Structures are given as structure tokens and as C-alpha cells.
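Co-fold these.
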Amino acid sequence: MGMEDRIELWERAGVIDTAAAARIRAFEAERARPLWLWSIAALGGLAIALGIVALIAANWATIPDGLKLAVHMALLIGAGALVWRARQQDQLWTGEIALIVFTALIVGGLGLQAQIYQLTGDIWRLFATWLVLAAPTLLLAGRTRVSGYLLAGVASLAVVSAAMAMDGSVATERLVQGLAAATPWILVAVSSLRADPFGQGLRKAGLAALLLFASFIHLTWAGEISSTDASRNLIRLLPVGLAVAAAIFGLHRRPVFGPALALPLLLGTAIAVALATVVPHPDAIIPRFIGALIFAAMWIWIAIAAARADWSGLYRLAVAALAIRLFLVYFELFGSQATTGLGLIVAGFLLIGLAWGTRRLFRVEAS
Amino acid sequence: MRRWFLPFALALPALVLAIAIVRQEIALANAETWHIPVAGYDPRDLVRGRYIRFTYDWQVRGDAAPCETDAFCQLCLDGPPPDASRTRIQPMGASCTFPVRTNDTQLAFVSPRRSLPFAFVGGRMFVDERSAPALENALREGPMLLVARRTADGRLLPVRLEPNPNPPTPTEPRETAP
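Predicted complex below.
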């Protein structure tokens, strides 16, 4: 529905009077920007940029290696200087864009050297080098959520690619995999060092990652965990335990949200991860059911805390997670068409009940 | 003190990348050039992404057992440069004028002859889009040479592929043939 339609609707319904409608129209007209003109200009800019990239790519083989390396080095130093100048002069977005370009040029430089000197090796080494070279600048010069997300992304890429390249046959490899598993909590811990939007971005990315991780890891309940697996996972959990402690300490020092929310988000998820990885169990119905119960307990704890803290977004997320899990139980536990059908009907009623309960809860709170 | 953190962090990537370039250039400056006979890697899959893959067609003598257990073996080129058609397997660090060491990550045991590390059997080289099809055809049709440079620390760096004027004769026992 367009703005004009809405104003007319509100006017007719008596929500606003004619004078207010006129004021809203005047305000919106004042605020309006020739969006289509900007769009065409932006399209033009994009076309030029793509053209330049294509021209360089077409002649890539004929450009001398020395020239490629020199131009890249000049761009990297230029972007770094721009970050420095923007921070000195307090230009927020110039600095942020320069920072993003700077970060991208670092990995570009690593790739360029790999190409020119025919370097081969695991991709995680490249990402880990990227993280080591880019993280200090992002931490010191990042100001907005965007650079917070960028750091979280680079860090996750480095540790996840490293964890996936290793088979966990030796203890050090298991510790690296544990470090990857601990990264969401490490991001939350690091985010408490900063009170600005950069810290918010880092924290949001960390929380999103740990909720996803804690939700997906409960799939291990649908398979076998031998006692060997379980004891190996204990080593993997060492870094996770340290990171959880650091995250809780960080949020205690800078209470962005109270302990009522911090505990289910940081500790509840960690408990779910620990139970899913260190309890030996066969591939059977009972462990699956226990896994589903643990998943539900984790999300119910989060939902209650979110409702009390008035975080309606997180509450809805928790309800959605529970609803999806509830829906899946019926595919897991029953096989035949009739029982699946029955299960779906029961799940449907439960979902409708959940939706109705949520609506009531937030109506009561709103009034 | 704190105000020096950001300039240092900003300079760090350029510094590290520059040091890496200098190290590569120093290693290459003292590298000798070798010609290794090569064949196609797999008739279906020569070009993978932007890498062309090939099988070394050199004669390999010696016992591959040390390579089996762990990656503790090296190749020793008979020479003299640039003739790299004959080579032998040695335990890592054995005396050799022209040792070829491959870094650990390359030593995946995926060779057609399971007893040899992949890097001793085949390699890959970054090629640009335009020359890839021509190289792929050439590798299918005739014997080729890999021109490579061996750095002092034993790394073999592919430079280019070119036609082989003296192909290895098929009567010779070629251990690396799949």
C-alpha cells in the first residue's frame, strides 16, 4: 500500500484529521529524493566499474606480474591511507567503505601471490592469514555494524575452513575444531570490549551464529555417538568452555542485556552443545526424543527470558524454532501415512496454539 | 602508545605481502630451470577451474615405502639441468644435488599409483582462460614438457607447458604410468 493510500485510509477512519494529513503530505514531499535519478546514476557507475574489471580480466595474461603486484600494493596502501585520514577527520562512512575495500584488498593480494608464484595448499591457510592481517585494523578502525559483521565473517570463514580441513585424528586438530566451535562465543566476548555499533554488529553476528550452531548440533542425537567420539569431543569442548566463560564475563562487565537473558543465550546453548557431543548414545528413537527435548528446553528457556526482557524478536524466533522442531518430530517418530497424517494434525493444532499464545502474551504486555 | 596501534595495523598487511614477494623473488632468483616430460592427467578432466592438471612422465626409481607411511620422502633429480626425465625416491633429507621437496599439504595420497604421493605423480598449474583450451588439446594430442624452476629449498614452481621435442619412448619402463 502506498503512502498516499495509507493517508487517505487513516483520514477516512478518523485516525488523523485533514490538517494532520496535509502536514504528513508536506513532510513526505520535503523528504522525497529523486530516487530514480540516483538509481540511474548508480547503474552508470556500476556499468563503468564492471567494464573496467572486464577490461583488466580480458588482458590479465598479458599484464606483467610485476605491474599486477605493484598496482595491488599501491591500492592497498591507498585504501589504508584513506582509512587513516577518514578516522582522523571523523568521516564515518568514507572510513567504513575504505575499511571494507582495504580488507578485500588483503585477501586479493594473497590470491594474487598464490596465482603468480603458483602456490598451492589448503584454502584455510589463506583465510587464516587474511584474518591475522585484517583483524587488527577492523578492531581498531571499525565503527559501524557493517565492519562488525565483516570481522565476524572473516573470522568464521578462517576457523570453519580450518576445522573442515582437519579430520580430528590428533589432539591439536581437535583443539582447532573446538576453536571453530567456540567462535560464536568468542565474538560475543570480544564485542563486550566495545560499546559502539561495531560491538553491536559483532555481538549480533555472534549470537546468530551460536543459536544456529546450538540448534543444528542437536542433529547428532539422530545418529550414533560412540564413547571414542564422546571422549574426542571432550577435547573439542575445552575451547568452547573457555569462550563461554569469557563471553559471560564480558557481558557481566558491560551489561548490554541482563543475566536473565545472558544465561540462556550463552550458557543454555553451551549446555545443549555439550550434551549433544559428549553423551554416548546409539542411533535409536529414545536418544532422538531426548535430543528433541533438550532442543525444546533450550529454546523454551530463551523464549521465557526474551518475553520477560521484552525482546519480542527473539521470542518470535524461539517460538518459530520450537514450531519447526515440533513439526519435524512427527516425521521422525512415525512412519506410515496414517500416523504421519495424524501427527501432522496434532502438530498443526499445537502450532496454532503457539501462535495464539504468543498473540495473547504480547497483547497483554502491550496494554 | 595507543595512537600507534592503528598505523601499525594498517601497515601490517602491506608489510607482510611485501616480505612474501621479496622471499619468493629471492627463491626464484637462484632457481635453476628444469624440463619435465608430462602427460594429461585424466582425459575427462584436464582443466579444473582455472588449473590445468597433468601427470609427470618422468622415470621414478627407488622405494616408495617411506612415502607410504608419512610424507617423509623426497625426489632427487638426476640432472643435469634442464633434463628432469629421470629421478629417484629418497628418504627426506638424504644427500642429493637436486632434491625436490613438496610441501606437506600437497602430499595427498590420491595418485593413480597409490604408493606415490600425488605431487610426485601429477601437478597442476594456474592458466588463464584463453590459453586453457589450447593447452588441453596439446596435452591430449602430443607429448609435452613442463618448464619448471626449482628453488634452493627444493620447491618446484611450474612456469609453462610446451611441446616436447624428445618424448620418452614407450618401450622404457615408466613407473608412474597409471
